[in-house]
Structures
1.
Amino acid sequence: MSSEPPEEIRLKDHGRVLELDYGPGEIYTLSAEYLRVESPSAEVKGHGPGQEVTVPGKKNVRILRLAPVGHYALRIVFDDRHDTGLYTWGYLRELGRDEKTRWPAYLEKLANEKLTR
């Protein structure tokens, strides 16, 4: 996965959407909810394989602030006070490319665990 940053990063719809523009033909429009439930933080991913947590109740979460971390990542501060995940440029691109499979898998996990968005 490329570690190059996007050419443009736009926060839209009052923090509900993050748009990442990597150039012609590669623009990802990711919801704050999707980014929050896929956070690379230990709170969500755990400290090793099999420790991942399904995060419910984030349907209305918004992004308050974006902060670059060096030349390799973005810290996203959400309005639920979550801010510990460092979204590397490669991970953000992966989230964009894989959204069509990751999002339905997340919704299925919620349903299986009887949780709501």
2.
Amino acid sequence: MNGSMPRKLPLYVVKERTRHGKVIFYFRIGKGERTRLNGVPGTAEFNKAYQAAMKGERFEKDEGPKAAPKSVRWLIERYMESSAWAAYSTATRKQHGLFFKQVIEKAGNEDYRNITRKSIMNALEDRKGTPALANNFLKAMKGLFKWALRNEMVREDPTANVDRLKHKTKGFPVWTASDVEAFCEHWPVGTMPRLAFELLVHSGIRRSDVFRAGRQHLSGNVFSMVTEKTKAAITVELPPRVMEAIAATKRSGLHFLESSLGKPFTSKESFGNWFGDCCRKAGVEKSAHGLRKLSATLAANGGATTHELMAQYGWSNVQQAEVYTRGADRARLGVKNSRVVAEQLEAIKPRTAAPNQIPPNRKQVEISKKKT
């Protein structure tokens, strides 16, 4: 076969789609036990599994080379079986998993106990062209060895005294007032992009949450959900304009947002790409995350405290919230203290009249003095 999936499935094979949008295949006769089949119909891998299922045999998938004890591959596999790994969000596991794949490809059979601080620093140096990516790599390795140290698999953590690479970046640009006006003029109430905008800016949730949001998270006009990234429970009140946008936007299911096919988005990436296209069509070169930053900035400038911001935006530490409150507090305190200075000066410095406010008779005296 050429590897393409046939239109008609083989006998006793059923197709299902997971909640993540992935298509999988099972072998099942009547109401008997289901057997997961590897690959897709038309491939050699699938055919081997199917033939084994037809014979009532168990097909063991070739998992590739086995990890030698104490090897880098072995350590990473044990880590990815741990509760520490399971506690990460899906996005974090995906990102760190890609880094670990690179490490395994390069040094999978090496003894992990030979990894030193110098090894980690060299790995960062190899990635210095992309500092942000290098720092995420370091974060993944720190998680691995922190777990290994806690479980007495290493005596020392080689990442303990390794610093992040320094690089200046402001990340995703924040939306401006003109961006908001341009977007809202292009996408009126009743359109899906406008509803996405209203939900993002008023709730402040991430793209990883907004594409999952729906009526099941709404009680009256109070929106509550557990965030995907930090597992924090957030609760916000949606104003009338958001409720009106929800009511005015047609959709077929519980999800607030649907793609042009009338189906919920399958991932944060698919939603992010779609929303980015909507922004560009409106002449706005910004992103969904930039809208979240605008929301947090407005809240901080309005006087929201650090813990109030943490509650709304699902941050698990004060540092992230202080990014916004620090700037807002400095501006607010600067204005306040300048007024204090002015008041103090008024008390100690006598007021003098401006030149154009000198009485006429006084001017004559001064002039006469100059003439004499």
3.
Amino acid sequence: MRLGNDVNGVILLAPKERPQLDTVAVQALCDELGPHMAEDMMCRAMEELSLRLCQMHDLAGSGPVEDLHKALRGLAAIAEQIGLLGLARVARDAMACVEMGDPVAQAATLARLLRVGEGALTALCNLQDMPG
């Protein structure tokens, strides 16, 4: 986390986390499916993660908590499958907040999940753009 400028006595926080990518899991996918099928699966998983992050955002504001919990569980499973361990962990943390019924912790953890999810998707896009 970086500390920002002091504005009228208030320090602005700029939380930033680096995406955690389990390269062993990614390599296992490549070994199991072959490079082309693994890349196709990663692309589909990225699309699904993006959709679920948007769905989670919508559900957090007005949806039933059961649907939010289900979306978080699916997001965690997909993230873990493609090696995004940090994203999976934060999704499980958000699930715990939903289960506890703590709206403040839930809001904070969901905001973190969106930040981590965006960073993870960006990192995967950058990884796919690399030659090799």
